[in-house]
Structure formats: C-alpha cells, structure tokens
C-alpha cells in the first residue's frame, strides 16, 4: 500500500528541503509545495457523486466530492503540511494528535489529542517524517479507536523501517510519501533524510 510520489517538481522540492543551507522561511514554503502535491495524490480515489447543475447554457450532470475529509497533523511537524489540505478542500475538518519522540529512546509520547467525528470520513494523517514508524502506528491506533474506517497516512520522507512497521501493524492503510530513503541511523534519524523536520520548520 506504499505510494511514492513520482513527479519532477516533487524531486526538486525534496532536494531543497534536504539541503542543510535552506532557511526556515524557505523550508516552510517548500513544505507547503510538497504537501500540496501529496494532497492531490492521496485524494485521487475520493468518491464523487453526480448532481445536476445549470451552466449558463444548459443543465448538465456534474461530479462533486461525496466524502467528508478530516486532516489530522501529528504535532508539531505535521502542522507544516496542513494548509494545502485546507486550501484544496474547503469543507475539511482538522483534528490534532500531539506526539513527541524521546530523544534517547526514539519512542513517541502522547501529549495532546483533539479529533472531530471520524466515522464515514476520509482521515488523512499527516506527518512529514516516517522514521521508526512508532508515531504513525500510535496515531493510526488512535483514529481507529475513535471510529475511523478510512485512514490514509501521508508523509514527506519515509524510511524502509518505518514503512515496514506501519505495514506490519496496519497492512491495509495506504501510505503516500514523497521520498523513500535508505535507512535509519543509530539515533533513529532517516538517512539521507533532511534532519529534524520540526526544528527546521520552526527554527528551533
Ligand atoms: C518527528 C516527526 C514524526 C516522528 C517520526 O517528530 O515529525 O512525528 O518524529 O519518528 P518515528 O517514526 O520514529 O516515530 P518529533 O517527535 O521529533 O516531534 P516534533 O514534531 O514536535 O518535532
Ligand atoms: N524525525 C525527524 O524530524 N527526522 C528524522 O529523520 C526522524 C524523525
């Protein structure tokens, strides 16, 4: 269920996100751009229904979106991916899951959760980095526990280890990513990766 974004613009944007000389203001713009491309890919199979509308010339059957969308960023870095979803889908609801990796163990600790109604809706969990997969698996467990039945994970950079972890626990959940990198280092950072996404996004 892994989908790797294949577009020259995506490759270009990822390159500049990886570059350690890219400053936070540019990093935020690039995050917006790559998330916009991912948002389009991750919603490619959204259901539509037919309505009859009137153009200035005649009535015509026309397709409109038929499923409500919920975007759920995993705080804090996931916030850098939300805006394109809100811009594209005006009726989207936004939920929040706060998870923070312990620097020594790389195990994520939950510190916040605020979610709208999830049953029947397409839930898009957004988190730029899929490293060990621990945060993603926790977040998927949370939304499934709240009644979500249609969940998609959207990340910017993924590791093979993180993809395998999500697939082990949730084999049916689609993962959309812009880059599948080589491996994790001993501190569970993605290689070649782009460093700490949250720190680079917020200049911390
Ligand atoms: C980063 C990232 C993911 C998590 C991925 O967040 O945004 O949420 O690490 O790692 P994992 O796959 O090994 O769980 P971090 O915990 O650093 O918090 P932050 O977003 O507040 O910077
Ligand atoms: N979180 C990040 O921000 N970067 C990584 O490489 C791994 C986890």
Structure description:
With 204 residues, the chain is an alpha/beta fold. It has a single domain (2-202), classed as Rossmann fold. It is built from six helices and 13 strands. The protein has helices spanning 8-18, 24-42, 82-88, 134-145, 160-169, 197-202; strands at residues 2-4, 48-54, 59-65, 69-75, 93-94, 96-101, 108-114, 122-126, 129-130, 150-158, 175-180, 183-184, 190-191. Helix 1 packs antiparallel against helix 2 and helix 2 packs across helix 3 (82-88). The site of 1-O-pyrophosphono-5-O-phosphono-alpha-D-ribofuranose has 22 residues, from strand 6, strand 9, helix 4 and helix 6.
Mass-distribution shape: globular
Gyration radius over CA? 17 Å
CATH architecture: 3-Layer(aba) Sandwich
CATH topology: Rossmann fold
CATH class: Alpha Beta
Low-pLDDT stretches? none
